[in-house]
Structures are given as C-alpha cells and as structure tokens.
Amino acid sequence: MSGALILGLMTVLFLLFGYMGVPVAFSLMGGVIVGTLFTPVKLSSMIQQMFNGVDSTALLAVPFFLLVGELMTSANVVVRIANLSQALVGHLRGGLAQVVTVFSMFFSGMSGSSSADVAVLSRTMAGPMANEGYRPEFTAALIAAASTIAALVPPSILAIVYGAVGNVSIAGLFMGGVVPGLMIGFGLMIYCYFFGPAGFRRPRTTLCQFADAGKAAVLPLMIPVILLGGIVSGWFTPTEAGVVAVAWILLVVIPALNRGHLRRLPVDFAHAGLIYSLPLITIASATAFGWLLAYLRGPIVVSGWITAAAGTDPHMIMFLLVVLFTIVGDFIEPIPAVIIFMPIVNALTDAASINSVHMGVVLIATLAFGLITPPYGLALLMSSKFVGVRFSSALKASLPIYVVFFVTIAFTIFFPRVILWLPKQVIPESVGCFKSPAGAGYICPP
Amino acid sequence: MAGASVLVLQRQRHLKWRALDGLERLLMILCGVSIVGFSSSVLFDILTREIGHPWLWLQEVTSTFFTYGVFIGAAVATRRNDHLYLTAIAEALTGRSRLVVEVFNRAVVLVVGLCMVYFGFLNFLSGFTSFRMPSMTPIASLYAVIPISGLLIALFTIEQLVNGWRRGFEDPAPFKPSAADDAAEAARTLLGQRVMPP
Question: Among A216, A233, A320, B155, which residue is least crowded by beta carbons within 10 Å?
Fold first, then answer.
C-alpha cells in the first residue's frame, strides 16, 4: 500500500472513531496502530512515541496553569474579578456584554485555557445576563468568542504546546500573542458597543467604588503579574512561573480570601491531577500520529503542494496555512492539530524564511477562531450547552463576531513588525535577535 | 473518609462494579500525589538553584511524577468516561444502535489498551539497557507506566463492556448528582469533554 493511501486510511479511521464517540487519544492511536501494520515500523516504536510525546520539560507548564484555573474557580475567587470588570466597564453601552469581555481578558491571563474560560464565564455571567434581558444566543456567542482570548495571551496552553513541539520560544509566543489577544478583546468591546444589545447601563462607578473593587481583586490579579513579570525578567521559565503562581494561590490567595476552602484542597489536587492527564494523553497519541505522518512523508507532500501554489511568498504561505488550519480546526482539537501538522509548519516556515514566533502566533490565532466555528467549535458548543440554547442559534449569533477574528488574523499575517514588537522589546532572543558584538543592544533579523 | 468518597464518580453507576471503586479511589489519590509531587519538586528545584546548591536529581523526580501522572490519569479517566471526545454521538442513540456503537467504541479502546500492555512491556524490557542521569536508574522505571496504564485501561473497558452488555449502556435511572459529582462535573467542564449541542 502506498504512503498516501496509508495516510488517508489513518486519517479516515481517526475521524471515524472520533465521530463515533471513541476518546480522541484512542481514536488517534487506533489510526496509528492500523496504519503501522502496513509499514515496516514496529508497533513497539509507536507506543514508545507516546512516551516521547509527554517526555518534555516545556509541557510541565500545562498542569500548573490548569491547576491555577482549577483552584481559582473552585475557591470561588473569580467573582472578585467579575466585580472589578463591572466597575471598569459596566457603565458603557452594552453593559454586561462589555463586562464579559473584560472579565475574560483578566481571567485569560491566569488560566491559559479557553475551556476553563467558557466554564467560568458561563457560570458567573450567563445568569445575570439572562436576568437583564440579553438574548441567550447572543450571550453564548459572546462568551465563546471572548474565551478564545485565553488561547492567545499568556499563559496560553496552546502556545506552550506549540512551542514545546515546534521548538519555538514559548516566552516569545506568549509576548507575540498579546497584540492579537487584545485586538480580539477590544474588537468584541467595539462590536458590543455599536452593534450589540444596549443592555442595562449601570451608573459610572465612583473612585471609591472602583478602589474597593480593585482592592478586593488585587490578590488574584497578582497572578498575571507574577507570570509575565517572572518570564519577562528572566527569573522563571514558563513552567517555573506556573508553579510560583500555584504557590501564590495556595499560600496567599486562598488563605486570605476563602480560608474555608483549604479543607477541599486534597480533592482539588486529585481532580487537577486527572484533568491535566487528559490533554497530555492526547498529546502523547498525537505525537505517535504525527511521527507516522512524517515517516510516510506527509509533511513533504503537503508542503510541496503549498509551495507549488505560493512559491516562497511568506504572506501567501501563511494565508494557505491559515486556510488549512481553519479547515482542520473545524474538525479536530487545536492541540492534536498543532502536533500532527507541526512538521508541515516547520518545513514551510523554513522555506519562506518566516519568523517562527510570527508563524506560531498566526496559527494559534487561527486555531482560536476554530473554537467558535462549526461543526466542532468547542468553545461555542460548551457555551451553548451552559447557556441552554441550541448550537445552531448560537452559531447564527456568532457570525457577525467572525469579522473581529478575520480582521485580527489578517492583521497578524500582514503586520509582523507589530506582532513581534513586544517580544523584541522584552525577550529579544525569543525572535532570533542576538547580542551585538559591540556590547550594547541586539541585532535582529529583518 | 469523606474526602475519599468524593473521588469515585457516581455517574453511569450501572457500568461499574463496586469492587473496582477502591481502585478508582486509589488512582485518583495517585493523580493528586503526582501533581503535588512534581509541583513540589519544581518548587524545590527553583529554591535550591536560587541558593546556589541545585539538587540535580530533582529533575528526575519531576519527570517521574509527571509521566506517571499522565498515564495513571488516562487510565482512571477511562473508568470515569472523562476523556476528551470529538462527539458524544452514542449518547443520543437508543436501543440496539446504541449498543452496537458503544460496544464498537469500547472495542477500539480495548485494542489500544492491549497494545499498550504488550508493546509497552517490550519497551519496558528493553529499557534496562538505558539509564537516567544522574541517578543511573534504568529508564525501564519510567517505561513501566505504559503497560500498567494499558492494563488498567483494558480492565476498565472490560468492566464497561460486560456491564453495558448485561444492563444496557443507557443510564436506567438518571441519578441525582451529589455535591461530590458536582465537583467532579466542575472539574470536567474545565476541559469541556463530551459536549453536545442541546
């Protein structure tokens, strides 16, 4: 059987198993096991690839950020951030719709997971929005769209996986994701202001009320400061920043704000231990799938198609990759998508001399968009379930919001200088700059 | 122990043998131990490095806890049906079609689990010739977790197949969630598994 046929068979089996209801990790391995039988590769090598997939220091950061999200939610500390968001923007046209977006921008800086964001936003904001007369389909669409910010801004788990698998600077991806993350956040606020429901506008908060809300939220808001400050200053790697944030929550935030929750910590840890294994076992299986894909020369074939169509024009290559990842992201989860297609991405990044951080930010933004597109827009599926509205209605309400994502992705492709400005300022090495032999400053690639 | 009872998920009780509840509880505790273990070892790694006396062996401890946590968690998630899914199409079916799809799905999981047992064991045996630095522990100590995980996955899948075949996969009595299950559900939703359009 030819390599292309084996690849086709593996892919069909993965999708068949996955859509029949087999867990993603086992669907991937099912495809791998059948595909391997048609090659000279030993099955023990493929099982070994599962182990290699999780044997990465960079991936250690994933459980820490999931643990941060779990502890913050479980200890019910996030309400304070919702109150602060309301004090900041509750008086604007759009009312609670504006609050949802700002709340998500804050919480994204702590959790790194869009799914965690959807769960928290739905539980915290869906009820009050229903009480104030917002259409549930609009609420579901907005919550889903706002939650995608978590995939872009630090400590994005998707960026960690992308960096670990693609050998790209995770700190660079974190910094590079800030501009598109803010663009989506402010884009949603502008959309809600001009085109969303007017909502119930609260009176502008007084300085005292704002100070009270800020004071109540200051301890949890230190988490993004610790994460960013530690990474940017070079004190911590992303993994170490994650563990310091966990220590901050355990030793300061929970004892100060919800001491009674300390008794529940053992259960939180057990659940967090289970939760982190779920994406990582999927990463393990996707690594085996990606390895066999590379063995069968899949990346060379696909990158050949793309370079045949686009030459070495970086914009065209990025555009075609965005199309590919939009289609892929419609059917499978972002994490396996990144791992499976990373060899193709690396080949094309080299072929067109694209900065690897820039390419990473473009593709992560695309996969974030995939979280709200059908048929497998995970964030939209979750929010429609939590809000209690049909997926098709939520999808219809989210269509105008797609414009925000189109603009953001296009901007990310065509303005690499803006995207890479922040990484260049704070971690120049992350985008390929090196120290000038003259002693002062850095020399950066064009 | 109140803390222990909340660790066994009561959802889809009809697919579970009570005899294996203790194993689920033990594995959940091990999940907690693994995350506490590698969190502590990373923290100590930072502290000892900052004071200028790094303990190099901590990195081995970290990777051991991490790897065991991933594969043990994957095993217990099989019993709890907590894995990441593309769809939960089977739950929308009833009767014979549901039975066929559920059996097929678990057959796929069983085959993968058994491959992890057999081929993982071969890797374990070959792992005695490679060593981890700086302790010089055979790398087989890490590889061991794959056949163990495969064995547990196969065991839990057989448990569900037997009970599902005898009692049907549909939940006969929609159960009233307890506080424990609420907590478990909250944990699950953080990753958003089994999400279907309402």
Answer: A233
